[in-house]
Amino acid sequence: VQLVESGGGLVQAGGSLRLSCVASGFPFDDYAIAWFRQAPGREREGVSCISSKDDGTYYAASVKGRFTISSDNAKNTVYLQMNNLKPEDTAVYYCAARTDWGIPLTSMGSLDIRHFTSWGQGTQVTVSS
After folding, report:
1. Which residues, including other chains, have CB under 8 Å from residue 21's CB and lie 6 or more apart?
2. Predicted confidence (pLDDT) per residue in 15-39, tens digit
3. pLDDT tens digit sequence for 75-95
4. In a 10 Å sphere around its CB, with 0-12 CB exposed, 13-18 middle and 19+ buried, how is residue 95 labelled?
5. Which one, of 50, 6, 2, 57, lies nearest residue 29 by Cα?
């Protein structure tokens, strides 16, 4: 399984970026792919996730209404459109996959990182104020 992210960069607050994650090596019609992010000194947190079977999605409360996750199965690619970016969105963003279409959540309702077994190398997103 290989995941390759792209699309990160430097943007001013209020701006937009679109991240891409190209996946290979597993059935793209039976998966859940997520975006996590990690800021310096902080734990990796789940941002968004999409499921292949029912196009179900998950968004962290901090990004709901600003970020949109989507997939293009013909291109084996998942996108994260990020609008109205804030300085607190600054982090390395990672694409992660699990070869099961369900979206795993913890008892607190956040994305359960333990269920994602394949990871990309990460792409830096920096939002200046």
Report:
1. 3, 4, 5, 33, 35, 77, 78, 79, 80, 95, 120
2. 999 999 999 887 777 889 999 999 9
3. 999 999 999 999 999 999 999
4. buried
5. 50
Query: ∠ at Cα 61 (97, 4), nearest 5°?
Result: 25
The span from the CA of 84 to the CA of 88, in Å, is 11
Distance, CA of 118 to CA of 2 (rounded, Å): 7
Token pair for residue 61? 């409360």
Q: Most distant CA pair in the chain: distance in Å?
A: 41
Residue recorded with tokens 């994305």: 111
Find, among 107, 128, 102, the residue nearest to 116 by Cα: 102
Q: Is 68 exposed, middle or buried (0-12, 13-18, 19+ CB in 10 A)?
A: middle
